[in-house]
Design goal:
It contains 6 helices and no strands. It has 121 residues and is an all-alpha fold. The termini are far apart. InterPro entries: CSN3 (IPR050756), TPR_PSMD3_N (IPR057985).
Length: 121
């Protein structure tokens, strides 16, 4: 019988690593047609680490991905990564950092319904 801790380690390293590989592949291709796919991959990448309880490990990667999405004017990627970063900060009770990020992040006119529901204030 496989213990739940072993399953979590397998999930973290197998799915987390493969998701990060997919994220890197989409970033290297730099195609605007992959922006929607990349936003989904960011979500699943963060979800893998959230389920294993190791969100702090990917915070710097999420910040770097947000910076890249901003430079590429990828609005969906920016919104998705902003929500993931805020979720990451709030998970670890880093309220001041979350507020600084939220206050400096741009607000977009055309939100997707899914992302707009996260930003209701």
């Amino acid at each position: 019988m496989i213990s739940s801790a072993l399953v979590m380690v397998m999930v973290k390293y197998d799915i987390g690593v493969s998701t990060m590989g997919a994220v890197q592949d989409t970033e290297e291709s730099n195609r605007r047609t992959l922006d929607v796919l990349a936003a989904r991959l960011y979500f699943y990448y963060s979800l893998c680490y959230e389920l294993t309880g190791s969100l702090a490990e990917i915070r710097s990667n999420l910040l770097a991905l947000h910076r890249i999405a901003t430079l590429r004017h990828d609005e969906l990627g920016q919104e998705t990564l902003l929500n993931l970063l805020l979720r990451n900060f709030l998970h670890y009770n880093l309220y001041d950092q979350a507020e600084k990020l939220r206050s400096k992040a741009p607000r977009f006119e055309a939100h997707s319904n899914q992302q707009a529901s996260h930003n209701l204030s």
